[in-house]
Inverse folding.
């Protein structure tokens, strides 16, 4: 399949190896990835941050399990943000979820294998409907993946965002009582999870948007002003790479239609 290109000018997001190293902590405040020791993986991450997701995926996979993190991330961001075909999007998430099984076996202490599987399964659940996903038994695996990633890396802000999305989706689909008793998802935990994620990484536009979405799932128009404020916060951020640019543009679009 052909992957869609990054749709915005990318010069600002193209790093050389030295520039990537200098900006690494800012770029990876959400996933707390360590700076790669292999030159080929440096190239893979350079491609990722520039929005060349297909190249990043291929370079990562060429390095075996050591390159899975960048391959997972490139595939999931591409599928979430750029792929327009629903079937292809689900196929990409399936590939990541399956590949994470090997990642977890070979690197059980690497939070990326747990986080990206939970992310891929969560996106699949959203695509097929949360009710169908609950019937298929996806919820426990999504929850376990995010929580295990946090247990391995407490500063993993992205995993906390994912857990917050999980909590809000389950409460919205199953109702507060069933969500709490059966799936361990509670409204007040969701708010706390998002607040912690934003404290850990205040630069992530996606965190503000997902928190806004969660508020709207819980309370609808009652919290419209708070949701708009979160979207505005996301839209006002200066993107540090291509993925953040896509998220900022999505926030701007939300503000136009909300």
């Amino acid at each position: 399949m052909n992957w869609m290109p990054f749709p915005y000018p990318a010069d600002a997001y193209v790093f050389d190896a030295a520039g990537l190293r200098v900006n690494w902590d800012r770029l990876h405040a959400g996933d707390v990835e360590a700076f790669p020791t292999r030159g080929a993986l440096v190239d893979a991450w350079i491609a990722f941050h520039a929005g060349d997701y297909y190249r990043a995926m291929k370079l990562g996979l060429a390095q075996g399990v050591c390159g899975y993190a960048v391959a997972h991330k490139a595939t999931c961001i591409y599928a979430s943000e750029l792929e327009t075909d629903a079937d292809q999007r689900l196929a990409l998430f399936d590939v990541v979820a399956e590949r994470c099984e090997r990642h977890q076996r070979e690197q059980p202490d690497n939070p990326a294998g747990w986080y990206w599987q939970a992310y891929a399964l969560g996106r699949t659940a959203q695509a097929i409907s949360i009710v169908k996903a609950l019937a298929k038994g996806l919820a426990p695996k999504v929850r376990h993946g995010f929580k295990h990633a946090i247990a391995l890396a407490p500063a993993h802000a992205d995993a906390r965002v994912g857990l917050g999305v999980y909590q809000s989706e389950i409460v919205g689909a199953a109702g507060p009582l069933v969500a709490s008793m059966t799936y361990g998802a509670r409204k007040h935990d969701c708010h706390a999870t998002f607040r912690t994620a934003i404290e850990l990484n205040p630069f992530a536009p996606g965190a503000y948007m997902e928190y806004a979405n969660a508020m709207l799932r819980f309370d609808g128009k009652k919290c419209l002003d708070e949701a708009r404020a979160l979207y505005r916060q996301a839209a006002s951020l200066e993107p540090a790479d291509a993925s953040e640019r896509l998220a900022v543009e999505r926030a701007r679009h939300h503000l136009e239609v909300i």
